[in-house]
Amino acid sequence: MIAKWRLLYDPPQPGEINMRRDQEILAEVAAAAAPPTLRLYSWAPPALSLGRFQKAEEVADVQACRRLGIDIVRRPTGGRAVLHDRELTYSLAIPDRRSLVPAGVVPAYRFISGALLDAFARLGVEAQLSSEKSQGAGLAPGSCFDSPSAYELHVRGKKVVGSAQMRREGMLLQHGSILMELPIQAYRQILRFQPRHYYHEGLPASGYPEYQAGAGFNGHRPVASFTGDHSGRRPVPCHPERSEGSCFCPQDVYLENLGHSAAGLLDLGYNIGKDELAAALAASFARLFDIEWIKQH
Asked: pTM of this prediction?
């Protein structure tokens, strides 16, 4: 007899509610009050989620987040900061049993990523997994999407999915962000950067559009490309009026690298909606675990 698990489609909600709901669902499954659960959801308003061990003041400009209407929340999982805006988020709460997932964080990541790969394939997206040697950037300031971790999905060399995992009292929670669009201009305004400068001669000036609250969160497509020659990923200057020996902001250097490292499905030219992506994920997780869904909205 095929096991029946719970599939939840949640409406957009504030970050605090989303994170609390993930933990409540995990507790329900642990108490056998609900079957293993896959939850698919999004965020409103946008939120910057921090890893369990990160300090907000070291990672984010808290005042800028308030000004832009971006919540700051903490995930129960580890990892680095993620700005949740134009994306679909998945959350899987299951018993940490060997009949379901392999032992160890990295083998479990690889196994669960199989469902994500299959979902992308169903949608005609050619994705690959980063190697086991990919270690990410620890708890360094910056976005989770600026570097791949082991067995995370990338498309055309750009990271599209960022996931985090925790185990507690015989249970496993893994949740992850699937980018539709990379909110690169918002990252520029809300992340804190290392207090250092970069000096080069004769490099072209950059022009960053301001990320507008409201406009940026409703249909505005972030620009994930930059002026100038990027063949060597050279930094671009903070101020157009400066040329030789000019100062280069770490924000500009960092964001150029982020634009090379990550992108959303829409940024990459895939005309895929959230509902279509959610349906593919549901089918692929059902296939991975050989189960049927009890759907709840």
From this structure: 0.81
